[in-house]
Amino acid sequence: MKRKILVSACLLGHKVRYDNGDVPCLDARFLKWYEEGRLVSICPEVTGGLPTPRPDAQIQGDRVVTGSGADVTAEFEKGARATLELALKHDVALAILKQDSPSCGTLYIYDGTFTDNKIPGEGRTTALLRRNGFKVYGEDQLDEVERELALIDG
Ligand code: SF4
What we know:
Number of helices: 5
Bound molecules: iron/sulfur cluster
Oligomer: single chain
Strand order of the largest sheet: 2-1-5-8
Largest sheet: 4 strands, parallel
Structural class: alpha/beta
Mean pLDDT: 98
Number of strands: 8
Helix content: 25-40%
Radius of gyration: 15 Å
Order of helices and strands: EHEHEEHEEEHEH
């Protein structure tokens, strides 16, 4: 049986983003993995206790803060730990998370100035998953995911 794939809930069309929206991934490969029942989803920020909608947040050094300066680091860390537990429980093959998010970003995040400027970096959940040995890709890296799954699935 093929192993599960961890995904950001917003990529599956769940309206869990800070603005109450979603960003469904409509790539045919992603939809196929969904049809095969391989996807396990979570929103780290909602699981960490934050509401939807919620203020936009960005990473500033070791902290995660909203535009008005509220510290939401604890909620982000709680969500990251819950996501790691889910990944371990399902022994996922890898993760596909939403690019640019302060939780889920895999290659880029916003720079903490709330000016729409992106920098190379990773979200708090992505970082924790990677520290624990999981490979994490963005929804814009499905070519790499496909190659990785071909090796894992055999
Ligand atoms: S925390 Fe991740 S799953 Fe939740 S809305 Fe943001 S990008 Fe999507």
